[in-house]
Every structure is written in C-alpha cells, then in structure tokens.
Amino acid sequence: MYSFIPRAAPIHRDVTVQTSNGCQYRVKSELANQMVAIRCLLAKSADISVIPLEDIDSETFELVLKWCRTVRDSKVTLNEHSARTMFKKLVQESIDDRIMIYKLILAANFLDIESLWGATTQHLSDEINECKSVQDMNKIFNVK
Amino acid sequence: MCTLQIEEEAHLLHICGSRSPSPRPRSGDLSLFDICWDDVLIPKVAKYLSLKDLFNLRCCSRVAQRFAEASLEIRAELHLSGNNSKNIEIAFKVLARCCHRLEVLHLACCKWLKDDLLLPLLKQNKQRLRAVNLNECVNITALSLQPIIVECKELRVLKLAKCQWLTTGAVDALTLHQSNLVEFDISHCGAIGERCLIIFFRKLNKLTILSLANTPSVTDQVLIQIGNYCKDLEHINLIGCAAISDYGVRALTVHCPRLRSLHILRCLRITELSLAALRQRQLFYIDRPPPPLQDVNAVAHNNAYNLNDFYPSDFLVY
Question: Structural domain of residue B110, as residue ranges?
C-alpha cells in the first residue's frame, strides 16, 4: 500500500517548476504534494518562486504530471497491483520507447514520488522476467 | 519549520544545482545500467528478479555481470529446493561466492549438495541465517551442520528430515548452542535416541512447530517431556511414531494449551480416549477423522483395557 511519507508539511499553494530545457510548469498543490522532494524543498525555503529540475526534461515531466493526475483521480486504492495496471495503461497510451521509461525512473527517484517509483521499477522487472534467454535480454535492453 | 533528515538536505542541495557525483549520460545514450544502482536498480528492480533472470543477466555483459552479482550480494532468500538441474553445482558456487546476506536458505531434496559446496556459503552467511531447510539432503554430513549449530546465532527454523547422517552428537550440540529454535523437523531420522530427545526438549522450550514423523525413538516419555517444557507448541507431527500411546498424547493435551494441530496417522496405540478432548478445542485439526457416533462408545469400552498398556521406559516420571 502506497502512502505519503510525512517528512515535510503538505503544500497548500500551486508551485512553478522549470525543467532542464527551460520550460516552466505551474503544478497544482495536490499534484506537487505527491513529490516529496519538492515538499521538502519548500519546507526549507518557502519563498522559492521557481523550482529548478536540472535532470528532468519537459517531455518526461509531462508524463510525471500525467501519472500524478491518474493517481489523484483514481477511484481504487493504490497498491502494487493497481499501480502496475495504471502504469501499463500509461505506457500503452503515451510511451513508445524504453528510454522514456528509464527517464521516468530517474525522475521518480529525483522527485521522490513513491507510487511512480514503484510502478516503473516493477514494470522494468516484469520486462526482464519476460525475457526467455540471454539473446532476448541483449536485444530488448541493448546490453552489450 | 520542519527538521530535515541528512539525506533530505543532501537531496535538496542536489536539486538546487550542486555537482552530481556521477557523470550524467546524454539522453540518447541512456541505458538500463545508467539508472542509479544503489538507490533504484538493486533495491527496487533486482528484488523482483528470479535467479534465472540474474544468471541470464550475468551472461549479457561485464556490467550486467557486476549488477547481477551486486544483486545477489544483498539477496535475503535462496530457494533451490528440488532443483537438480544440470550445472546446478556451478551456479551454486557462484551463489556461495556472491551471497553475503542470506536469511532464508531452502535446499530440500538437493541430491547434488555436498559439504564442499555448502560450507563456503555457510561461512559467508552465518551471521544472518534464520531458516535453513536441508530436508532430504542425503549427500551432506554432520560436518555441514557444525557451522549452522555453532555460529548461526539467529537461527529459528531448522529442517533435517530424512537426513540419515544426523547423529545423536549433532543433536546434543544443537541442545547446547541453539535454544531459540521455533521450528524443528527431524522426521525419519532413525539414528537419534530417546534419551537425546528428552534432553533436547528440556532446553528447546520455544518450539511452536515440531515434526518427529517416523522417528522410532519417540516414546510417551518424549511426549511428556515436550508437554513439560514446550508450552508454546502449536503444531506437532507424529505420523508413524508407533511407540506412542494415549498416555503421551494426554500429556500434550494437558500441558500445551496452544496446540492447534496433531498428526498421528499410523499411530495405532492412540485412540479416541485421548483425541476426544482435543477435538473439543476450537479450530483444532487432527489428521484422523472422528469415528462415527455409534462407534464412539464401543471404542471407549474396548480401549479401556489398553490404558495400562503403555510403552515402559527407564525415565518414566510420575
């Protein structure tokens, strides 16, 4: 069962973030509250106007926001199984290469979004599980 | 204002633009092993991978091999029970070298397992092992048991069914060194004597699950000793212990209030005289079904003469 880790107080205002390629996004408080790193930053320095996300590009951040909206709007209790199903749907709808999944894992780790972190890593291990041989792994993950 | 933990401060410094300790790959070059190993790949991805996946990864590249071996290093459980596939000994040597934090080790029915394969694995993992299953490992000896008995201080579960090499001396050593076991299985171990078992149960009084199936030296006196000392016992398997009778079972009924299941198939000297009281307990399981109602009285009458016919022992305590 996923739950917020209350390491910092919830945010009650919308926040502005700037991605690595200079795009700015206005993020609603209920979505920003899922990003523990941003909560911690604002708890330390409440007057920051724009939060820099040096390692996350805009394409990746839009997918992060899409995930956070899905979690917010989900009517079922978020657990390992439901997160796996939701992420598979996100992959089918919006992700067409594996590199984007790696970027999402890095973004989830960076922003400390537990639900996205769990869903992406579970998805990756499911893909590894499905490989029947060393050749499959080399081909799918381009491991040489 | 909240107080931040040290790792949160470090993380904040990072997102405020401080230098990352590792080079950042260009987006186009991003690959599986560019994801942080310590924070993500090993704790979050590797824990879902099977041994087959890890051994396949080992064969892909040198980096993949390092990743697979780093994952094995922190793996807590190793389940190879019944795995007698080709080249398993070679794989086991890799596991013995890489695994350093095993807590659970299942090697039941591994016919290929020998002392020279098992001892290195035990040497690397003796601090954390808490459950060891060596049922039917017929080709190891008491030599492999020695580090388990003497050095695995966290051991709570030990299964040695059908280990005919198990000696009275090894059980005496267990009595001396391992008083915290909660689950113990020595079914089909014919070499263990009655006296050894009596002394054993006096010391190992935290047992909750016990299997003594088909152990010929299990007598009523052993059951009395279990009743006297193993007050937390919940499940006991006495299948095929032909020497026990109602007398011993009654001792368990009286002294083990938490007992929830009893397996007594092929124990011909146990009758409803002792089982009836146990059947009254809620949620209690006995593997022998109750007799039809009209037969109960007949059974009670016939078996009244058998009460005095219990197995005599030099150690019988009144």
Answer: 75-155
ipTM: 0.79
Residue B26 lies in a domain: no
Question: What count of other Cβ atoms lies within 10 Å of the Cβ of residue A140?
Answer: 14
Residues of B in contact with A137 (CB under 8 A): 56-57, 60, 64
In a domain, B53, yes or no: yes
The whole-model pTM stands at 0.78
Inter-chain touch A117–B50, beta carbons under 8 Å: no
Q: Which residues of A touch B4 (CB under 8 A)?
A: 7-8, 40, 43-44
> If interface means Cβ-Cβ distance under 8 Å, which residues of chain B face chain A?
1-2, 4-5, 8, 11-12, 15-17, 20, 24, 27-28, 30-36, 39-40, 44-50, 53, 56-57, 59-61, 63-64
Distance (Å) from the C-alpha of residue A105 to the closest C-alpha of chain B? 8
Please write the tens of the pLDDT for every residue from B290-305.
Answer: 888 765 555 444 444 4
Indicate whether B17 pLDDT > 50. no
User: Do B281 and B151 sit in the same domain of this protein?
Assistant: no
Per-residue pLDDT tens digits for B24-60: 444 457 888 888 899 889 988 998 899 999 999 999 9
Count contacts between A and B (CB, < 8 Å): 104
Do B83 and B63 belong together in one domain? no
The domain made up of A15-140 is a member of CATH 3.40.50.960: no
Helices within chain A (DSSP H only): 29-32, 36-44, 58-73, 80-94, 98-111, 114-130, 134-141
B201, B178 contact by CB (below 8 A): no
Residue that is last in its domain, among B103, B126, B155:
B155
Identify whether residues B267 and B167 lie together within a single domain.
Answer: yes
Closest listed residue to residue A104, CA positions, set A69, A72, A54, A63: A63
